[in-house]
């Protein structure tokens, strides 16, 4: 196990069940901060366990710029927003 994962797991005893669930389902990371994609968020509500993955995707600044560009403003969102964004939007 990596040192970072050890720290997360050892501190998990102090986290709320919601925080532990967020950590479990978050599939991306930027500068040490974990994020959920819109797909992760939906799966965290509808599934008992996250889908299998080898590791979290590390986001680069250009990835964040892309997410901001494709995410509609609240006033222009639709009922299909989560389906349309899939893995190209994040929440933290």
UniProtKB/TrEMBL annotation:
Where does the protein principally reside?
mitochondrion
Any idea which UniProt keywords this protein has?
A: Membrane, Repeat
Q: Which GO terms describe its cellular component?
A: uniplex complex
GO MF annotations in UniProt: calcium ion binding
Q: Where is the signal peptide?
A: none
Question: Where is this protein localized, as stated in its record?
Answer: Mitochondrion inner membrane
| InterPro entries for this protein | MICU1/2/3
Mention one GO biological process in which this protein takes part, according to its record. mitochondrial calcium ion homeostasis
Q: What is this protein called?
A: Calcium uptake protein 3, mitochondrial
User: Whose protein is this, by species?
Assistant: Amphibalanus amphitrite
């Amino acid at each position: 196990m990596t040192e970072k994962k050890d720290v997360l797991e050892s501190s998990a005893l102090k986290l709320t069940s919601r925080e532990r669930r967020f950590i479990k389902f978050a599939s991306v990371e930027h500068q040490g901060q974990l994020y959920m994609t819109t797909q992760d968020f939906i799966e965290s509500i509808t599934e008992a366990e996250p889908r299998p993955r080898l590791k979290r995707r590390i986001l680069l600044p250009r990835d964040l710029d892309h997410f901001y560009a494709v995410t509609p403003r609240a006033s222009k969102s639709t009922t299909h927003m989560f389906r349309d964004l899939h893995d190209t939007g994040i929440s933290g």
